[in-house]
Amino acid sequence: MRSDIFQQLQADRAAKIPVALATLLDGGEQRLLYLYGKKNTKDLPAAISEAARDAIIGDRAVTIETDRGTVFINVYNPPLRMIIVGAVHIAQALAPMAAVAGYVVHLVDPRTAFASAERFPDVAISSGWPDEAMAALKPDLRTAVVTLTHDPKLDDPALSAALKSDAFYIGALGSGKTQAKRLERMRTLGFQDHDTARIHGPVGLRIGAKSPAEIAISIMGEITQVLRQAVRA
């Protein structure tokens, strides 16, 4: 690997930028490729760019055949993360599900009586206010944010921070009526309709979920759907 490619790859990984390394097996030529065409050069065959995007979204290495020969595309994705705001019963079910699915889970709730290690073992807990916690966690393209408190004092700062980030998924618990009021509050903060459209609410797939565990399943399902069916730019 050329030193300039290696250095850029290291910089991208440090910055938590999803990136793929395409290698022409016959000759060893290499190119770094990005999810939405960022930094991709115009002379690259479209098939390779498409394969790289699919590989990054699918989180898997792929091999494709081109006019120039076989190209191996290896993926260097930052870890998936889930930021859950609200140490409620749904969060107790969602956190272990997310961990099994490969997410590093962060729980945010200043109510320390709820956000305890006893209720959330093996979960990183932030007892700061959501705006402070989100500023420290810095949601990125590999981060899902889910707010579950039903309390605007806690949910809204987290949603505001999420909307200003590259988080691939933003979801908020509540009924359709609650969601309408939530979106209106976001508009008063200066967000436009195309911004608030990123908020999935009521959160989760429509599977008729009732119990906290079922709602957690619906949330996990919707997050997975959004992750794997990411819209390509």
The biggest sheet, with number of strands, parallel, antiparallel or mixed sense and barrel status, is:
6 strands, parallel
Radius of gyration: 20 Å
Strand order of the largest sheet: 7-6-5-8-9-10
3D shape: elongated
What are the segments in which pLDDT stays under 50 over at least 5 consecutive residues? Answer: none
* Estimated structural class: alpha/beta
User: What is the quaternary state of this protein?
Assistant: single chain
Q: What letter string, H or E per element, gives the SSE order?
A: HEEHEEEHEEHEHEHHEH
TL;DR of this structure?
This protein is α/β, with parallel strands linked by helices. The chain has eight helices and ten strands.
Keywords:
single chain; four-stranded antiparallel beta sheet; 10 strands; 233 residues; 2 domains; Rossmann fold; alpha/beta; 8 helices; six-stranded parallel beta sheet
